[in-house]
């Protein structure tokens, strides 16, 4: 194993709106970080896609920049970590060239008819038995089937099934691999108990596509090829991890991978992951394999959270977040009579309704921008509590909450979430997220890193008892609002689609 001095790893994470890269010493010291922003293609309502070529070009750019930073710090890059959003569907030919744009995770709801057909053909109970989770917009399998049904010419050229992390690993090493966790979100293609591809389901949905070799996220995918070295500036022969989906790499970065841990990720969307030693399916949630051997995860994801605050900022004149946060703090608990459902892009867990819509109740002529902003923060907090309630209903134990992501800065949002849920939240020293987690896993290929040393706790956000009591009353009204408006939401969604 290498000593920490003068050796470094890089971690690169492909996210929804940007690709982030970090350069870290083997002791977790942050040497450099960088970001490349990109956009999401939205060709039709419910369709969200990325050009995978952008992922590779951004990786190349980031690798060169971090390589220069390593040279300035007299450090040698000795391992590479990869990470990416998911579960995505990128079909590629035998050379790894995409046959179409990548289809994104649960925000893309195009495959509703394919879900219905698979439920009918395979049986809903059998799908849950094999994969642990019913089919939803989060599932990768129906999206593969959608390409096969709707774009047969593109499908005919495809022979590989990739996600962002595995695509980067393929371009870097030439190895066609996918990690067990990402595979376990490829419902219904993966057998969660047997930890292998389910051949019958695979042949029903993805005939002609070669099954990627399954590994765990921290395992070596391969080493950097001469061609990749030429393109990226990285040294040939450096090992590359298999990697996994960004939210689970974020849990790694925060040290939230032990049974009883809940990672709460604040970002464009809100994501929750619990870890346990047993499979504990919950209605409306996602059951997956964990990052580490022998573990399972129960996860939830909201379709919007931070993106609503961006919408309010732009809609009301583009004020800065600092100003909006001050106004929201002044508004106080309950947002002066407002209650919001955060379903501005449908909703994932636990309601699993792509046709749900955002709702604001209680508007008056005295409602201020700060009230709206506060209501948005509270809506996401109520959504978190709703997800936690679903997890606990399955018997899942939650003993520690670790908050991560850009939304942990500023203090108000995390305080509102603690007040709504009644739970402490640990905020660690480093909130860089998935790229940092990928760098940590990469360090494990050449050293024995300890995440408690890489990323120790910095603060604990504790709930205010009076605010929690008030929010608990509001939460009951929040739970009533969706069923009360669901019929109207669906009618409006269908009407809007017809007019597109």
Poorly predicted sequence stretches spanning 5 or more consecutive residues: none
- Give the biggest sheet: 7 strands, mixed
Q: What is the domain tally?
A: 2
- Rounded to an integer in angstroms, the radius of gyration calculated over CA atoms is 22 Å
Q: What is the CA–CA distance across the termini?
A: 59 Å
CATH superfamily of the largest domain: ATPase, nucleotide binding domain
Share of helix among residues?
Answer: 25-40%
User: Given the helix and strand composition, which structural class is it?
Assistant: alpha+beta
Estimate what percentage of residues fall within beta strands: 15-25%
CATH topology of the largest domain: Nucleotidyltransferase, domain 5
Text of the CATH class of the largest domain: Alpha Beta
Mean pLDDT value = 95
The general outline is: globular
Count of DSSP-assigned helices: 17
Strand order, largest beta sheet:
18-19-17-16-22-23-24
Number of strand segments: 24
């Amino acid at each position: 194993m290498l000593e920490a001095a003068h050796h470094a790893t890089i971690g690169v994470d492909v996210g929804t709106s940007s690709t982030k890269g970090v350069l870290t010493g083997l002791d977790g010291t942050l040497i450099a970080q960088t970001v490349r922003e990109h956009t999401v293609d939205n060709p039709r309502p419910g369709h969200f896609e990325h050009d995978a070529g952008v992922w590779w070009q951004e990786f190349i750019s980031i690798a060169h920049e971090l390589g220069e930073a390593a040279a300035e710090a007299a450090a040698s890059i000795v391992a590479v970590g990869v990470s990416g959003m998911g579960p995505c569907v990128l079909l590629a030919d035998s050379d790894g060239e995409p046959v179409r744009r990548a289809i994104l995770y649960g925000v893309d709801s195009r495959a509703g008819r394919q879900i219905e057909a698979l439920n009918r053909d395979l049986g809903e109970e059998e799908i849950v038995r094999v994969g642990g989770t019913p089919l939803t917009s989060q599932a990768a399998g129906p999206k593969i089937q959608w390409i096969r049904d709707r774009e047969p010419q593109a499908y005919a050229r495809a022979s590989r099934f990739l996600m962002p992390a595995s695509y980067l690993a393929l371009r870097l090493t030439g190895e066609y691999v996918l990690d067990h966790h990402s595979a376990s979100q490829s419902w219904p293609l993966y057998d969660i108990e047997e930890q292998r591809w389910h051949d019958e389901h695979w042949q029903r949905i993805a005939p002609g596509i070669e099954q990627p070799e399954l590994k765990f996220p921290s395992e070596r995918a391969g080493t950097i090829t001469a061609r990749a070295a030429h393109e990226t500036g990285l040294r040939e022969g450096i090992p590359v991890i298999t990697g996994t989906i960004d939210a689970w790499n974020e849990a790694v970065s925060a040290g939230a991978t032990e049974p009883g841990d809940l990672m709460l990720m604040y970002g464009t969307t809100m994501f929750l992951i619990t870890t346990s030693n047993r499979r504990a399916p919950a209605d409306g949630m996602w059951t997956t394999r964990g990052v580490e051997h022998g573990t399972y995860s129960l996860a939830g994801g909201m379709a919007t959270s931070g993106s609503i605050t961006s919408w309010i900022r732009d809609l009301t004149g583009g004020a800065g977040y600092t100003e909006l946060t001050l106004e929201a703090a002044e508004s106080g608990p309950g947002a002066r009579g407002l209650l919001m459902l955060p379903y501005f892009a449908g909703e994932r867990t636990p309601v699993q309704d792509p046709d749900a819509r955002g709702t604001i109740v209680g508007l008056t002529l005295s409602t201020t921008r700060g009230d709206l902003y506060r209501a948005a923060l509270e809506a996401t907090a109520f959504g978190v509590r709703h997800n936690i309630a679903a997890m606990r209903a399955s018997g899942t134990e939650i003993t520690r909450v670790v908050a991560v992501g850009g939304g942990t800065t500023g203090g108000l949002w995390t305080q509102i979430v603690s007040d709504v849920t009644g739970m402490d939240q640990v905020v660690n020293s480093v909130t860089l997220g998935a790229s940092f987690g990928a760098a940590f896993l990469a360090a494990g290929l050449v050293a024995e890193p300890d995440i408690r040393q890489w990323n120790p706790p910095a603060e604990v956000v504790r709930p205010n008892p009076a605010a929690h009591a008030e929010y608990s009353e509001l939460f009951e009204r929040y739970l009533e609002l969706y069923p009360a408006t669901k019929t109207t939401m669906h009618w409006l969604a269908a009407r809007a689609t017809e007019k597109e």
